Amino acid sequence: MSTEKGPNFLEEIIEEDVKNGKHGGRVLTRFPPEPNGYLHIGHAKSICVNFGLAQQFNGKTNLRFDDTNPEKEETEYVDSIQADVKWLGFEWANVFYASDYFDQIYDFAVKLINNGLAYVDDSTAEQIAALKGTPTEAGKPSPFRDRSIAENLDLFTRMKNGEFKDGEKVLRAKIDMSSPNMHMRDPIIYRIKHAHHHRTGDKWCIYPMYDFAHGQSDSIEKITHSICTLEFEVHKPLYEWFIEQLEIFPSKQYEFARLNLTYTVMSKRKLLQLVNEKHVSGWDDPRMPTISAYRRRGFTPESIRNFATRVGVARRENIIDVGFLEFCVREDLNKRANRVMAVLDPVKLIITNYPEGQTEILTGENNPEAEDHGGTRELPFSRELWIEREDFMENAPKKFFRLGPGLSVRLKHAYIIKCEDFKKDADGNITEIHCSYIPESKSGSDTSGINVKGTIHWVSVPHAITAEVRLYDRLFKVEDPSSEEGDFKEYINADSLQVINNAFVEPSLKSAKPGDLFQFIRKGYFCPDTDSTSDHLVFNRTVTLKDTWAKEQKKD
Ligand code: ATP
Ligand code: MG
Description:
Elements: H1 9-19, E1 28-31, H2 41-56, E2 60-65, H3 75-87, E3 94-97, H4 102-114, E4 118-121, H5 125-131, H6 149-160, E5 170-173, E6 188-192, E7 206-208, H7 210-221, E8 225-229, H8 236-246, E9 252-256, H9 268-276, H10 291-297, H11 301-311, H12 322-336, E10 338-340, E11 342-343, E12 346-351, E13 360-365, E14 376-381, E15 384-388, E16 408-411, E17 416-424, E18 430-437, E19 455-456, E20 459-460, E21 465-472, E22 497-505, E23 518-520, E24 524-528, E25 537-543, H13 548-555
Parallel strand pairs: 1-2, 2-3, 8-9, 10-23, 12-18, 16-19, 21-25
Antiparallel strand pairs: 4-5, 5-6, 6-7, 11-22, 12-15, 13-14, 15-20, 16-17, 17-18, 21-22, 23-24, 24-25
Bound molecules: adenosine-5'-triphosphate and magnesium ion (MG).
């Protein structure tokens, strides 16, 4: 993991290019998602790299939808991708679609045919595969490899005109059937697919393959640095072959390692399975590693960008501890989340010497970690309070600095109280705690002369608002579900969602809305879910307060 280690290898390359005046010192990158799913944190990394590098070198970045696969692509995905890139804080120079280039890409194919560099093949997929050879054994030429240019032009036109059925013919580049790189063994560049396309409708029934669309799109847009992940390294010779043969703008491809995270899966195909098979509530289920899920869960764009920068770019595959992402989120929320009080597992506390029916408005500071302390809010206080069940013990051990018979604590922003008595039901559950309070011990004006070690949070019973609270755990039980034996879904954590239906939150949260960020004092960071309404508040736990990741680091 690189942190403030000086320029990474991509920065070095671009810096050198700019210095040498390559492309007139111009830098244009692109982020090229296929609109076949929602973006995940790996894409966030790629977005940060592409947009980040352009910003750094006074360049620009295009958003390009790589939509050459008509069947899997949908407008819903296009919309979500744009929303996610914007939310992350980036602005593209242009939005383009590979499908905008279908005419030009078709012309490129015709040019290859005219130069004797492409041919129509009538073989089936199985026949093509059988002749392809293996990495150690040369392939064999297709019986259709030596068709004349005129025949190829005629057949390709007829493919375009819809005279053939799906799979009946393909167009292949004529390169080298004995190349050690399998991608160079006469790759398929066009296929017949009588399918409706989300943008071009029924105009086309032939579609370019990814390898014949991606690089060409880069060239058409005059992308200077085409940055992608390592799995495309083996496609690079083909990328360059097309540029050379077609004599088009020489975009250059550079690869870096994909981001992988522990306790999750990171491929759209697998995430789609989780959605379709209802293991999660949708693409934005807060347990998913998608950008929309993180947004819903209360992660900030700043923390995700910061995470991406700190992880750095490398050319070696690795897997990052999800705890590090949570650490970045916690660090950011600590500065910006207002502190509020919420009781997740309530038990009633009665202050026996506080006048019945009296309400007092106390003041709470919103965020001691913020520069202006985030202002203050009003906190109604009364004789009956909800406190956390775990803050009381009937037989408290020595170092339990909370409540138990005879023990004293401070109520946050309020008074010091002492436990005098408690009630239990027939099953032994505590039902009521009786305390006395010290009127001179009010926060900020403590003249009681008594010091107590513990402070607990509370919510006034008559003022409390009932809320639903959703607690999330990791979606998978193992670090790397994709590398385990069998289906990755066997490793789903059945207890990854815990719903609390009757938590009590302080009244200032009445108007809380998605996008607001809170720390529930002593409980973690929380945010209103998109399901939340003023009649039925719903909160997500964003992250816990405990910083297990930092502790792990110290141990090393
Ligand atoms: P997936 O395999 O998850 O479906 P993909 O690579 O097929 O991802 P695309 O929409 O084709 O998804 O990717 C758009 C861009 O995002 C590509 O440049 C790709 O290299 C990059 N990208 C995808 N996944 C990651 C990742 N885990 N880490 C970094 N970059 C990624
Ligand atoms: Mg892809």
